[in-house]
Amino acid sequence: MNRSFVRFAAAALGLVLSASAVAAAPKFQMPFPCKQVWHGNTREDHSPKLAVDLSRANGEGDRVVAAAKGTVSKVRNLGNRSYGKYVVVDHGGGWSTLYAHLNSYSVKVGDRLEQGQALGAVGNTGTSFGAHLHHEQLLNGALQKIKFDGRGIHYYDGRDRYTDYKSANRCP
Predict the structure, then answer these.
(1) Which terminus of the chain faces fewer neighbouring Cβ atoms within 10 Å, N or C?
(2) Which residues of 126-141 are buried (b: 16+ CB within 10 A; e: fewer)?
(3) Which residues lie below 8 Å from residue 41, measured CB to CB, with a gap of 6+?
(4) pLDDT, tens digit (0-9, with 9 covering 90-100), for 145-157
């Protein structure tokens, strides 16, 4: 069999698998209760680049909820390093979400969460400079562009600015 055809077929199959995995993504919602408005911030020097920091005035201690149904796969406290207190939720199909810099968490590994169910509170732990929620959406461990309610968020475009987002998580 022609080697270039085999490489082409393998690459095409990889694209098909990737497209089906993306199509199977949960319909993530903002990780906050219904109708709350939060400022989303992305920066050129943000690490990791596709994450978003969500904050609002007097937000410290506010409830953080599951962006989609899933099972808690990680609960960690790194102290004053990195993410500080954080939770990871596995949504199946290779999809997971990460919630970092929490003030506290109210879940343990193995807990099953419904979309909108509380998992912790906004904090200022780890290497954080002010209370906020650092949020990531991952597919097989690789960061993906964040979507809330099926719409992509605004990413850094040369201007360091905030974009407001209104939660539709578990709205009646």
Answers:
(1) C
(2) bebeebbbbbbbbbee
(3) 52, 53, 54, 55, 132, 160, 161, 162, 163
(4) 999 999 999 988 7
